[in-house]
Amino acid sequence: MKEDVAQVTVSVPINRLWNAMASDMRHVVPKVLPDIVSEVELLEGDGGYGSMLLFKFCPDVPKVSYQLEKIVEYDESTNQIALEILEGGHLDHGFSSYTTAFKLTQKSETKTLIDIKVLYETKPEYKHVPGETIKATFHYINSLEKHLLKNM
């Protein structure tokens, strides 16, 4: 299993960020990424550990229409969440497994540190550039921060 890791600090309080990234994710993601994700449907579970989410992509997103993900880690006490892609999305683009994990740590009343870990395996014929997996995650976090600051 390969791993890409990164850290980023955002100007959003930890509780507000956790709610947006975890408990309200299916409602927040389409607002944060309106040109990419049209809808997030809860297929199974209550939105916590073990839940299955179907991310439906906008028609303009090239070569992908959906991504099925399962929440494989969900811990409110430590502000950790991880999602594993089961079908579609990255798995249609050279990856054989793909899991993104986030750990939130309060830095101050208004700042939160996000530790990001992407665990993945690539298909033998796929040439992956290390660090590329983090680009989409940074785009999401940057868009999320802007959305939350605008709507505080």
UniProtKB/TrEMBL annotation:
GO cellular component: a single term: cytoplasm
Entry's Gene Ontology molecular function annotations: abscisic acid binding; protein phosphatase inhibitor activity; signaling receptor activity
SMART domains registered for this protein in UniProt: Bet_v_1
Tree of life domain: Eukaryota
CDD domains, sorted: Bet_v1-like (cd07816)
Coiled-coil spans in chain: none
Example GO biological process: abscisic acid-activated signaling pathway
Record's protein name: Bet v I/Major latex protein domain-containing protein
Domain Bet v I/Major latex protein positions: 5-151
Gene3D superfamilies: 3.30.530.20
UniProt organism field: Mikania micrantha (bitter vine)
Family: Belongs to the BetVI family.
